[in-house]
């Protein structure tokens, strides 16, 4: 390792030279209190900025062990430090001048969810690592190293000291972060013990500020559980907390249009993640295997056994090994259900707004007119109880317009002026007076998940692979687009970066013609769990910009990868 003095000398030497001379700065340098590592130097001032990491030894960072001695606390502290660091850096970005990206200083932008990211990592022993991007300054394509000296010697040291040293932070706030993480962890573990699929605390703020802001809506009606569904939890730090417990089984959310049904479901969808203090959904916790199910016209489906829902297609197509490059509303939703089962979900979340009607229900008159034998679709309503009884998969369903599900539901919640009411008894009574022909279809066969991934998928071993992501919408791998627009529980673009890297990794190491898709995902999931995000980074350095996805989204991504051969 070199000293910061040597770096300064080197920078002075290469001033006014051609941009490529910056390449010599790659390496590690001892600064006062931390190591600066220049991991990758950009090729020119207009290219993607350089990659730099800051390593603060545990002794100097000084965080008490009990702030990061469990994964959930560690992730929360990383998130807290990253947000702090980002705020510091924001004040300095582009303060150093030059052409192109000269002077840029940037770290990951965190949203409302707390995610494990490569941008900030706390290692055993309390070492803090920050990974960021810096645009090395130039005039035209001529090095302006005086500006880089400003960044590395004036701006960055202050940012590091103000945000990554325990002694510079407000200990009360740091403690609160760990305590919230503990409480959220507690609720998550408490759900299965109490037979709950989700918990929504009284006082929660569910709606967001706007369609483009995930911040809490101001002046919103705070959540309040109906008395009959209220449970009280004893959180280790917060103490007693009451809220609505949604039991496993079949739960229906009904109510007039605009009364807050979809808002509640959306909060449950994202309740698989923990939220930051002040979000309003800190104590909205959903079983973290829950999957949002929706129609997704046009997606590709590969060898999925949708025979539980669809049989005897008029074109004679096989629905046990169903394949299509352009699914309909109902077939896509059927595949989404089966794939969620394969991905090990305990809870399906469905909103009729985004469902295919013919997948969800068939009304009585239609059943009379069009005989069951000539209808390929067994609607979800005829399987929803079987899913729970046979597979222990619960369903939480928003249904504003069809009463058919009243007959199936274990619990009916009415959203009324944004407040939930338990109307189970009333709805059941009304439903009893309104019987439906209840001849259930034959029990379905357990879907087969035996889909081995062939070795010749996508690209070859020595191909150079270009990866790009477009927001939360899609991943571009060479020429193939993986469309993830409708995988609604992806919450951060950095999760898509990780998914792209995972596909790449799987292609190089795991697709062997023998492993099934589930086995491939299991290997990836285990790798991430044991070694973290860095396990899948195969370059010479660990990049910033990767955030942890769930196993369910890894499945969702591979299932939508058209180049995959099964
Ligand atoms: P539904 O699905 O029942 O038609 P939505 O959930 O889409 O209704 O909500 C309708 C509107 O009401 C949205 O604009 C939403 O932001 C707003 N809203 C939802 N919940 C609340 C609340 N608790 N307080 C204030 N406004 C809310
Ligand atoms: Mg709605």
Please provide a written account of the structure.
This protein is about 30% helix and about 20% strand. With about 575 residues, the chain is an alpha+beta fold. It has 3 domains: about 1-170, no CATH class; about 290-430, no CATH class; about 465-560, no CATH class. The strands form 8 sheets. Strands 1, 2, 3, 4, 5, 7 and 8 form a 7-stranded mixed sheet that branches. The protein has a 6-stranded mixed sheet with strand order 19-22-23-16-24-25, sandwiched between helices. A 4-stranded antiparallel sheet has the order 14-15-11-18, sandwiched between helices. Helix 3 packs across helix 4 (about 145-165). The protein is globular. The model has no long low-confidence stretch (mean pLDDT about 95).
Main attributes of the structure:
566 residues, alpha+beta, 3 domains, seven-stranded mixed beta sheet, six-stranded mixed beta sheet, 30% helix, binds adenosine-5'-diphosphate, binds magnesium ion
Radius of gyration: 26 Å
- The overall strand count is 28
The chain-level mean pLDDT equals 95
The hetero molecules present are: adenosine-5'-diphosphate, magnesium ion
Q: What is the count of structural domains?
A: 3
Helix content: 25-40%
Query: What shape does the CA trace take?
Result: globular
Most strands sheet: 7 strands, mixed
**CA(first)-CA(last) distance:** 48 Å
């Amino acid at each position: 390792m070199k000293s910061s003095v040597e770096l300064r000398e080197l920078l002075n030497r290469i001033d006014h030279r051609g941009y490529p001379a910056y390449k010599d700065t790659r390496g590690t340098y001892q600064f006062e209190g931390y190591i600066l590592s220049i991991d990758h130097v950009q090729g020119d001032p207009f290219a993607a900025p350089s990659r730099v990491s800051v390593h603060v030894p545990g002794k100097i960072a000084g965080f008490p062990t009990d702030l990061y001695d469990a994964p959930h606390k560690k992730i929360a502290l990383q998130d807290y430090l990253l947000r702090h660091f980002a705020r510091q850096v924001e004040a300095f970005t582009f303060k150093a001048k030059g052409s192109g990206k000269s002077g840029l200083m940037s770290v990951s932008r965190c949203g409302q969810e707390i995610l494990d990211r490569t941008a900030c990592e706390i290692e055993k022993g309390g070492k803090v690592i920050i990974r960021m991007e810096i645009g090395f300054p130039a005039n035209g394509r001529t090095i302006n190293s005086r500006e880089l000296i400003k960044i590395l010697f004036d701006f960055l040291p202050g940012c590091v000291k103000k945000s990554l040293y325990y002694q510079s932070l407000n200990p009360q706030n740091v403690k609160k972060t760990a305590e919230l993480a503990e409480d959220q962890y507690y609720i998550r573990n408490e759900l299965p013990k109490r037979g709950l699929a989700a918990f929504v605390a009284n006082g929660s703020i569910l709606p967001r500020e706007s369609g483009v802001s995930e911040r809490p809506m101001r002046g919103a009606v705070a959540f309040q559980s109906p008395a009959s569904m209220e449970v009280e939890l004893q959180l280790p730090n917060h103490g007693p907390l009451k809220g609505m417990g949604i039991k496993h089984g079949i739960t229906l959310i009904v109510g007039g249009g605009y009364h807050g049904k979809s808002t509640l479901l959306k909060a449950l969808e994202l309740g698989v993640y923990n939220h930051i203090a002040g979000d309003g959904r800190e104590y909205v916790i959903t079983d973290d295997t829950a999957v949002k199910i929706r129609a997704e016209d046009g997606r590709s489906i590969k060898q999925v056994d949708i025979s539980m829902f669809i049989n005897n297609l008029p074109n004679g197509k096989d629905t046990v090994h169903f394949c299509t490059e352009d699914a309909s509303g109902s077939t896509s939703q059927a595949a989404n259900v089966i794939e969620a089962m394969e991905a090990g979900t305990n809870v399906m979340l469905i909103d009729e707004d985004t469902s295919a009607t013919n997948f969800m229900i068939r009304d009585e008159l239609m059943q009379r007119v069009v005989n069951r034998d000539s209808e390929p679709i067994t609607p979800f309503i005829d399987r929803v109880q079987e899913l729970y009884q046979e597979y222990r998969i619960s369903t939480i369903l928003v249904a504003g317009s069809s009463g058919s599900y009243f007959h199936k539901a274990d619990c009916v919640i009415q959203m009324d002026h944004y407040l939930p009411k338990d109307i189970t008894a009333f709805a059941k009574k009304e439903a009893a007076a309104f019987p439906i022909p209840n001849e259930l279809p034959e029990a379905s066969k357990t879907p087969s998940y035996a889909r081995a991934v062939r070795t010749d998928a996508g690209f070859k071993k020595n191909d150079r692979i270009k990866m790009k992501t477009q927001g939360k919408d899609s991943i571009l791998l060479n020429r193939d687009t993986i469309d993830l627009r409708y995988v609604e529980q992806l919450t951060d673009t950095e999760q898509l970066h990780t998914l792209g890297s995972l596909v790449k990794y799987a292609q190089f190491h795991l697709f062997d013609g023998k492993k099934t898709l589930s086995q491939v995902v299991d290997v990836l999931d285990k790798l991430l769990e044991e070694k973290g995000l860095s396990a899948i980074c195969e370059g010479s350095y660990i990049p910033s910009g990767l955030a942890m996805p769930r196993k369910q989204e890894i499945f969702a991504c591979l299932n939508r990868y058209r180049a995959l051969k099964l």
